[in-house]
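Handoff note, outgoing to incoming analyst
You'll be picking up this chain. Sequence as last confirmed:
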Amino acid sequence: MGDYGTAVSIDKDGTVDTNGDYVKIELKKGTFLVNAVALNEETARAQPMVNTTTCSALFTGTGPISISQGTGIYAGISGTAKMTIVFAGIFPTLKTGANKGKCNTTDTAEPVGQYSSITGTGTVSFG
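Most recent structure output, in case you need it:
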């Protein structure tokens, strides 16, 4: 059963929110909702590992999600999964100031290279 489409982050009321705790999966054959509240709570506590010699950073976090509210061929969908998020990046060095030449890993720094993945395992059933 192949399918494809898009995912959009939303808040609990269904309003598009890039920092939302829910994800609406909109595929060609139907839609469903992913509740990532618990996953986001777990990953918010995770601390990135930063190598100041290479200006690289690694972040991993694991937590549960639940799946519900299916339409189309996903009507009656329910399930849970344990998801793992991985992010690795290489950050620029500061060009000026007292910390010139040191890694810029501030919240506003854009990595010069990055990798991310989201994987998980769980059980899903249909109505």
